[in-house]
Amino acid sequence: MNFSTLFRLGENLNLDRKTLVYLRWIAIFGQIIAVNLVFFILGLEFPILLAFLVILVGFITNFYLQFGIKTIRIKDFHASFFLVYDLVQLSLLLYLTGGISNPFSILLIVPAIVSSTFLSMGTTIILGGLTIIFLFLLTLFHYPLPGIHENAFTFPKYYLSGFFISIIIGLIFLSYFGMRFSGETKKRSEALNKLQEILAKEYELESLGGQAAAAAHSLGTPLATISVVAKELKKELGNNKDYSKDIDLLISQTKRCSEILKKISKKQIKDDKFFSYVTLEDLVNEIIDSFKETSSKSINLVSENDNNKINIKRSPEIVYGLRNFIGNAVKFSKDTINIIINSNTKNIELIINDDGPGFPDDIIALIGEPYIKSKSQEVSSNSGLGLGTFLGKTLLERQFANLSFSKDKNLGGASVKIMWNINYLKFNV
Known about the structure:
The chain is built from twelve helices and eleven strands. By secondary structure, it is an alpha+beta fold. The relative contact order is 0.07.
């Protein structure tokens, strides 16, 4: 791991300013309550003026953070500054009130945990290292734990050493958990954003098709008028050499425009709502035909028990999802792809088998996650198992499909089973 990767210099890492402000206000007012409770209520003596001074500085810094900084989100560097200060402030308060023997010393791990959730790994490592250093110093150097005169509390050294080690273990564990949780959340968020982009593009294309058809319909009448007038002019002018060629050109170009508009209209008729419901077999055949134009591989569609043919909606989700999995089979197969459709009174299923390398055994259960790892390396979208598969699976599941992944026993490659409950499909037709 290089320096830029460690500190994620290429990423836009930041922390919501309000979140940090609220967390710091909770900490500050908690410190005020604890200090007053211990000194005035319990009567335990410690340098209270120094403690209030430390808290006052924290109050000022948070006041500046809330009202002096106008940005909604704080970048990694600036957020780390405030978290480091919070670590130093709490360490000073603990120094004045018994060091590591103070039960509130466990709160020293909070800045590092906040960093692990929202900021870079580099920042988290720095805060974690500083936390360990401060814990070590607080174990050796500190004011006595507040007690009642000669009855001041004392702890054996082995107890303090054990407490020191336990806090470090908690720090490492929680920071690691925070980084993993944050990383997975960010990856899934990125994947879902990509999903929304794909759907937006699909609907945009659909909308453009409708607009094109409307334009074709609107232009049909003026073009027909131009054609009629041009033909009448040709009759009137007879064999006039000066104009006949231009009129013939006008008629031919008008005819060409009409033919183009007819094609646009016919395409839209196929995509019209009346025709937007097709059998699964017809839809798959359309997708197969699009791949046959660019691939010489054998793609076979078999309807073994398709006894209950029903119409399904030609939605962007289903089209993209099916195209993704069929495309992966075409891409990674050696020569043969078999697509099987089965149906009965309850379910309709589509099975895509190929003779490619198949799915790695260690990730079959994870297929469909946005980013997955095999034993050797991370599986990228180029392998057919990364973001693209996640998007295809998610889109089909939105259309009430259930997906499962395995190895095909006959061809030896990958097998993808997509199944719908017919009642769900009928309900949403």
